[in-house]
Amino acid sequence: xxxxxxxxxxxxxxxxxxxxxxxxxxxxxxxxxxxxxxxxxxxxxxxxxxxxxxxxxxxxxxxxxxxxxxxxxxxxxxxxxxxxxxxxxxxxxxxxxxxxxxxxxxxxxxxxxxxxxxxxxxxxxxxxxxxxxxxxxxxxxxxxxxxxxxxxxxxxxxxxxxxxxxxxxxxxxxxxxxxxxxxxxxxxxxxxxxxxxxxxxxxxxxxxxxxxxxxxxxxxxxxxxxxxxxxxxxxxxxxxxxxxxxxxxxxxxxxxxxxxxxxxxxxxxxxxxxxxxxxx
Length: 280
What we know:
The chain is built from 5 helices and 10 strands. By secondary structure, it is of the alpha+beta class. Strand 9 (about 260-265) and strand 10 (about 270-280) form a beta hairpin. Pfam families: FAS1_DH_region (PF13452).
């Protein structure tokens, strides 16, 4: 790990929020589930809390806040949230006061087949009413501007084989879904709503589906099958981008206390792989 990033390591950032009924209702509407009036917030709602609120003057050309405040000023132009490991300790109750402590833990620079990469790991500890509710290790990757995203995204071709999966939900992530999730999370990254930017500047074949949105849909699949109060952990890894328009298959299976999950594209590509554990 390069010492030039030491000034950004280990320095906690504290943010505060509240689990409000209207925000939870909007998240439930996004998932197409009943509004949990007076109950706990659905799993995945924590990604809608303690959001970055940079002024317009502090927004970069890609829609993200400019780098160098909390996250290190890595020069590589493309940024993606590629993984999270989450542990659930207590539910987020509607009305709870929230504190999140976020800390950059590591920066690793590597050379891969697609060029230079930088991996940033961030720990988030979310507490409700002074009690730790959720711990998360988030991985962000920065990479060079690559012109081959479209070709890579269109090379599947095979219809997905879902025979090894027990749970299956079919959906089409459209532009409205992406917009609503960006609004819920105050995420202004332009690849999710600005089609000319996504295609002409970043080289994608369409609007990119947010990783935590797909992860939230997989969490919802677990809840639909197992109930809302059994999950103890959840981890996801982004494998390849998904785009607005083509169908997506949310699949899962249970093996004892272990849950395997995936989001699979219409052409058989694994978009996200995930796992979860449940209480014994």
